[in-house]
Q: What sequence folds into this?
């Protein structure tokens, strides 16, 4: 989807396709096009260069599919599992196809204008591609946003279930950050809801038992609720992992009377 102009001396095709192709090995992956299909010229290209071959377009589309974790039918009119010859790739009936064009224009502007005009830009240049934001998922929403939004719309039980579902499905991929920091961010955003804050932090501790910041944050929740003994235990566990935390040290002194 993006390189600098000097990396595309022949025509702008690589401006859209090269980084995604390199990122996912698309050039090394056989395209499921018959010989006749590969020879047919693509129709209704409005953002991609009009002189791209059908095989080049499919390489780009394959990169889009991998970058967003979607199938061809997300944007194109056709039936899943049927030959590409039965698809109406030229049709603009699907809203996602029209949205994809706008996203392509955005990426072209970022790489071709904003990044290209940065002074003292390092070589080799880094460009924006679909995977930069999407990382294999259709909606590029951070996990902390999903948790907080779900708490507000459907309650904390649904939010915790959603987190577990996403973790089961995507753990080990680049789609979401399953370290301790996103749930800490979510807990901070939910701080006006003490129960939701506590349960999000407990979930975080389940998956990240040695997270000193999570232990400290949960200690603060228990201290605010008057559960002094639990708060002290959590603070001591936190300080065993991260002894040089002045806030935890101060709170522990307050709760123990300096003992």
A:
């Amino acid at each position: 989807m993006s390189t600098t102009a000097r990396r595309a001396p022949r025509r702008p095709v690589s401006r859209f396709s090269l980084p995604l192709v390199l990122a996912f090995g698309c050039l090394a992956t056989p395209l499921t096009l018959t010989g006749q299909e590969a020879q047919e010229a693509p129709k209704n290209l409005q953002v991609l260069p009009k002189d791209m071959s059908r095989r080049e377009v499919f390489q780009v589309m394959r990169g889009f599919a991998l970058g967003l974790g979607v199938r061809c039918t997300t944007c194109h009119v056709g039936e899943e599992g049927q030959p590409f010859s039965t698809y109406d790739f030229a049709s603009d009936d699907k809203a996602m196809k029209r949205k994809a064009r706008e996203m392509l224009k955005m990426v072209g502007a970022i790489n071709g204008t904003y990044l290209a005009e940065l002074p003292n830009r390092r070589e080799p240049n880094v460009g924006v591609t679909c995977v930069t934001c999407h990382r294999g998922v259709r909606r590029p929403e951070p996990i902390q946003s999903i948790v907080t939004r779900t708490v507000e719309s459907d309650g904390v039980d649904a939010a915790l279930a959603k987190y577990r579902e996403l973790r089961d499905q995507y753990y080990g991929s680049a789609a979401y950050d399953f370290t301790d920091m996103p749930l800490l961010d979510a807990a901070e955003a939910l701080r006006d809801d003490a129960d939701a804050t506590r349960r999000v932090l407990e979930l975080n501790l389940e998956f990240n038992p040695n997270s000193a910041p999570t232990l400290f944050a949960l200690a603060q929740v228990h201290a605010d609720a008057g559960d002094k003994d639990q708060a002290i235990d959590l603070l001591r566990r936190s300080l065993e992992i991260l002894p040089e935390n002045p806030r935890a040290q101060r709170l522990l002194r307050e709760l123990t009377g300096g003992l």
